[in-house]
Amino acid sequence: MSRRNLSPAELFDAACAGDRAALARVLSLLERGDVVAREVGRMAYTRGGHGYTVGITGAPGAGKSTLTSAVIKHLRSMQLEIAVLAIDPSSPFTGGAILGDRVRMQDHATDPGVFIRSMATRGHLGGLSLSTPEAIRMLDAVGREWILVETVGVGQVEVEIAGKADTTVVVLNPGWGDSVQANKAGLMEIADIFVINKADRKGVEETRRDIEQMLELSDLAHDAWRPPIIATIGNTGEGVVTLWDAVLEHRASIEATGELQKRRDFRLREELREIVARRLELRAREICTGEQWETLQDGVLARSIDPWSAADQMLKGVGA
Ligand SMILES: Nc1nc2c(ncn2[C@@H]2O[C@H](COP(=O)(O)OP(=O)(O)O)[C@@H](O)[C@H]2O)c(=O)[nH]1
Ligand SMILES: [Mg+2]
Question: What would the pLDDT profile of 139-153 be if each residue is shown by its tens digit?
């Protein structure tokens, strides 16, 4: 059956019934962020609510994909159904994951219990910060209980997205200065769990001390949850069970304190605000053309009207 002929609603139903190709198509629709995407997003929104997201973030090359793959193995050994969203804006070709990611993720390509998706980072009208929660909700809607989100922890937008998971794992490497870089990038603030990956290399203890020190200086150390620091070796899977136990512990902690609900509510409020802002921005682009716009611009240039009054005139009666 060609899924291209299916309506968005039919695709959505097929995806929820377990059709992976339909799910892939629906996610592509969502990535566009257009009117069809909104229709699909609406359906997903009312259906989900059971999935738990774990963000895995850090600098490029820190070992996020390798670790993600090791975590997948661990979860599959417990027969858990999972989805992985790999967000990598650094790829110049497809906006998707880099080749290395794809190769590693091939290990799980034939496992129906794992659904892996590389997110396009361009195309969505609202950008990554709006397309990511939509995609996560869709994966939740089809019943994936664990959703792993790999993001590059470089750049303001990416770090913001990385911090939007229920539990955020920040991946660092041994060696001088890595934690300082992470701190600068804003990663310390969003960390629920620290991982020192590549623990087969020198400098694990120094890095651990650096992180401890930074924790002491931040508010994090005094919250109900103090982020643990876990050493791992991604390629062998060493430390991954400990890492996952920490994720479970963190989840139990924020569920018990009500922090999880608070985080989710906060995220939704932020998303709503962003959607409104984005639509106003698009509307602004639409109205800043045409005769009135030209005349007002001329007026401002000729100093016969000030920019604020001109803007007032443009905005009269504008709906978004
Ligand atoms: N020595 C060592 N290399 C690792 C470890 N984990 C990952 N790597 C390697 O580090 C490189 C980058 O890993 P990758 O998972 O693609 O990093 P990402 O960019 O953060 O997703 C790859 O060559 C991995 O094989 C580790 O624990 N020890
Ligand atoms: Mg990667």
Answer: 999 999 999 999 988
